[in-house]
Design a protein that fits this description.
Keywords: Membrane, Transmembrane, Transmembrane helix
Structural class: mainly alpha
Number of helices: 3
Helix content: over 70%
Order of helices and strands: HHH
Radius of gyration: 17 Å
Length: 76
């Protein structure tokens, strides 16, 4: 894999990690204060749960890509 592609994958993995952490923090904020973000407050926990799950998936995928890129760089 060429250097620019490797750099692009590295940037993508770091952005996924940051996005995952941000989504998980958003889910925690929405779960803590559902009435502050949504006037009804009834379905806010569903959106908070979705934000948590998507954030965790993005974080794990970003960590996996980041680790795989490092391993491929040193052992190829």
């Amino acid at each position: 894999m060429s250097d620019w592609k490797l750099g692009l994958w590295r940037v993508t993995s770091v952005l996924l990690i940051i996005m995952g952490l941000g989504l998980m923090m958003t889910g925690v904020i929405m779960a803590d204060n559902p009435g502050g973000l949504f006037t009804g407050g009834g379905g806010a926990w569903v959106l908070a749960l979705i934000a948590e799950v998507v954030g965790l998936a993005a974080f794990v995928w970003g960590m996996y890509l980041h680790r795989r890129i490092k391993i491929r760089r040193y052992f190829s």
